[in-house]
Amino acid sequence: MSSKVAAMPMAFTAVGIFVIATLWTVYHSFTNSKLLPKSELIGFDQYQRLWDSDRWILSIKNLAIYGACSMVFSLVIGFVLAALLDQKIRLESLFRTIFLYPFALSFIVTGLVWQWILTPEFGVQHIVRSLGWESFTFDPLFNPDIVIYGILIAGLWQGTGLVMCLMLAGLRGIDQEVWKAARVDGIPAWKTYIFVVIPMMKPVFVTTLVLIASGIIKLYDLVVAQTSGGPGLASEVPAKYVYDYMFGGQNLGQGFAASTMMLVGVLIALIPFAYLEFGGRKKHG
Q1: Domain locations in the chain as residue ranges
Q2: Intra-chain end-to-end CA distance of the chain, in Å
Q3: Which of 74, 146, 170, 210 meets the CB 3.0–4.6 Å disulfide criterion with 273?
Q4: Rounded CA gap, 157 and 102, in Å?
Q5: How confident is the prediction for the chain on average, in pLDDT?
């Protein structure tokens, strides 16, 4: 109890600073702030400029593609890996370490590594062509139509290990009697996973989805490290848009408006989680 009381001033300070900074940002998104913040309100002009910007629309589309693919593939790959490790295989701890290791790296390091791997002159394309397939082409970071998928590969490589660990913890929490009853009834393993185990792991899936969603909205490091938003603006994302306008374009008002829209995206991700987590508990007692 004493430790909680001692932590309260720090908690209130952190929350207070966050709330004040958030309100300050939202307020100045309605101003014409350029190099320095201004207090003169101009209404929704910054938001109109934002949504009239082709660059912002492209960044939203890229984030939507990256987000949808990241959620689906992260959950599927992470769950499959966790299910395989849950079979009490030999060297399980070694495989857990190998799969989780990429998560320990910074996004910048991951981006630079995958930039090298996906570069035609040195990476996969060069290796395959050196083996005799001269017509083989694999250059996602240089193709505007698929560049976001090249970034997605790096994101999945780094984040899937964490999803696997969360899923594995959820699987280890399933009562073994469930598996025994399924085997006695002759239910195939895949049906047991889909119709019994996965519904029992709902809290794990909700938490995992929130973690993935928060990482998606903040996507910046991988893009900068791999493509710097290129080719052209083909891999632009909202976080990079905010950074470029606030620090590169000296247009604080536009950057604040974009960051406020990102905050709205975070709330959209958190509100369903809060409802499922706390609303569900209240209904069930």
Answers
A1: 53-283
A2: 26
A3: 210
A4: 7
A5: 89
